[in-house]
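pasting for ref
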Amino acid sequence: MNNAKKKKKINRFNVMIVIMFIIFSAIISRLIYLQVYKYEDYKDRANTSARRFLPEKAPRGKIYDVNGNLLATNIQTYVLTFTQTTESYNNFYLTMSKVFKLLDENGEKQQDDFKLEINDKNEPYFDFNVSSDDSKRALEIRFKRDRGLNDELKKKLFPRKQEELTEEEESKIDDELMKMSADDTFYYLVKFYKLYGLLNPSDDEAKKFNKMSGEEITAKLLEKYSMADIRRYMLVKDAIKMQSFSGFKPVTIANINKKDTAFIFYQKLNDLPGIDVTMEPTREYPYGSLASSVLGYVSSIDSSKKNRYEERGYDVSTDLIGKAGIESAYESILKGTTGGTTVKVNSQGRKTEELFKLEPSPGKNIQLTIDKNIQYAVEKTLEERLKYVSTQVYSSSGYKISKGFNATRGAAIAIEAKTGRVLALASYPGFDPNIFSQPGALTPELSKQFFSPDYESFAKQFIAKYNLNKTVDDLFPKDNNGARQDKYDIYPKPFYNYATMGLIPPGSTFKPLTSLAALEEGVVTPSETMADRKYFNTHPDILGSWAPADEHVHGIVDLKRALAVSCNFYYYEMAVRMYLKNGSDKNALNTIAKYAWKLGMGTDPNSNEKASTGIEIGESFGQTYNYDYFKKLALYYQRYELVDALEKGTYGSYSFVPLDIISNEDGDSDKLKDTKQKIKDAIINFIDNSDSTKINSKNLNKLNSDLKPLLDELQDNSKIFNGRIKEYNSTGKKYSHSAVIAAIDQFIYDKNGAINTPAELVNASIGQGANNFTLVQLASYISTIANGGTRYKVHLVDKITDSSGNVVEEFKPEALNKIDIKPLNLQAIKEGMWMVNNASGDGTASNHFINFPISTAGKTGTATYRTDEEDYGRSDYGVYVSFAPVDNPQVVVAAVLYDGYQGNMAAPIARAVYETYFRDEIKQQFPNYQPMFPYTLNPPLEDKKDNSIKQ
């Protein structure tokens, strides 16, 4: 018998139990791991994903006028935001479709700072709100890099490179980025942001879309949506992407203008995952465009400056910064400190618990020296005077041109004579800064008008209007990038501050300065008289045959009458007398400049003096004629004149074989480049190192001997020059360097003489030639004379206060310089300027001050833009300066009308200032006075006070 035990059969039930035991053991082990060992880790992760920081913008500091009227403030507006959570992400397209529908039905606009626009032909294009091509390139590259287009190019151009790219390689990527059109970028973003989600694809369809190009996806989308529709969704996706760089914060969908719209969204929030409505401060300028040239405006941060502002604590995706004027100059003062709340949110992005709150801190306030009523009077009168001049068409017999005047630009400033405080500063045309701070106000049309003007269309109309014998290319030539440039300053620019940035020749408004120099130098007395002549030809031994002419002859004049009638002959004579008195050398050419520098009309090139009037906003600073400055300027232009003459083969009475002298970076060998440069440098350096007494046959012969081997080298290395010589020799003549050398010698004599002759000093004495200044400089210099010799810092800011109105810092008048003026000399200048405004028949501005009860002084200036200005639709600058009262000056005014024809055309602006400034005195002491303007004695602007602080 077999006693071996039979093997037991495996029980299937037992196997299932074992398997289940293993599975449940694994699950329990995992749960223990997650809930015990990894509890803190996953708790932090869950809390982090459920937390959101809701920023609360700090109100920007307010800006007041001198009387506490609000020029810039903040208003609370409703803001529609989107917070990305799992649920809001999954329902993004459905939610946004509802949001867009509600916005459209209620007439609200989606916030749109996206620089990739769609034109009326449904074509994408970039709009970067800048006029410079270099700036456009920089912003376009930054835009594309921020969205990862450079990463795609890096993979393509440098597929195996793991380390950082070199500057040269990055530059190559930038070049390739610029080759990508707006269409290419749009298609890239359509795919990058997976906008095919609009079609609600299945998983399989989504996989197919992922394999398509952006252009193919766009084509599919266009079967159901327009380009503008696609862009609306892209805009939000892009905002989420850009916001992610600084944390997952809510992105703004729209700024809601109507309270009813906000309430509609409040009611529907449960159906709109991720959507919320909050309140934010928005910059507002209660008086619109008033003082825009002073205030400036706020706008978003350029992506190219992103890193700089992030380091300073800005949220580059939402914060606005000052872009001009006081808003920019005092950005760090006006900017508040952003606060906010850290909250827990649910799956819809709604706040469930407040964890931590940081109160925002408002920026400090700035009170200006500007008086809103005087500012209004200046702006209104400036605009009226420009329109008056531009609508006049005069006969050529009575006026310089008969084609009308392009008087579309101008500026004016009023300052206190004894403090330098600015009462009004205007630049025309201006702009409404609300356009940049109010949502949706900056339309694509306005953006193009402001930052990308159609010069071509404007030029065609301009040429037709003024019947010019010029082409569009003549007036607005293209640069190397093909962009048109306003070379002749024809187009009116609202963001260009003509008062602080525009450098203009002062014309005869410079004559009080020349008067001061002549009197203080003792070359004339106030009572000395002389006979005026048409031609200033009384010093042929000094000026040669050059004899400037004046179309007006005024008979017998002394200093006061010379100022009143603006006699050029008198001031020409003063310039020559000062030149002779001070040694008749190059140092004597600085005689007037030494006085001008003390009055803030330029600075000594050999000093360390700061070139500024002191004004807080951006300014240019012009220079008066002086030897070193003019020589540097002359040498710069002489180099171009030299090249032009040598290339043409003619100079003066000399003709020669044209040289190949223009630099050709691509076509010239290194040897040829070097030879061309040596020829030009040899000639210009010779002029630079010589004065009128040092040019003689000996040193000129030395130069000529140096030039001959260089001309030989040019002939040997330049195929162009060699070809011209062969062509010349084929006519039966024999080329030699002698004709070229003779022409160069003559060029040197002429240009050296132009630098060292007192002719430029004579020209400068009447405010022409190298003299160019800003209107602020003119006002400052007249103020210095009016108050007896103290030059004050020109300033716009009176004080800085905190949000409660407490003074943080106050700015007192600051003297920059002091010039001693003999009382009799000062009195003579003031009397002459009084005659300008009051001497009937003599005074060049007297017709504008008839019956004015306050004693005023002034000076008109008519300054030429260029000798052929009419050919370009330009005319003379109309410049005017003034102060009042004469015996105790309180207010100084300076004004300019570009293409205003005559200085007296701007004089009514000063009268408008005086009528406003002295209105209480006039109404009390002269009750029957009839003002020239209806808005001066009774200013129409209402006061707008800040009720939140004590005034």
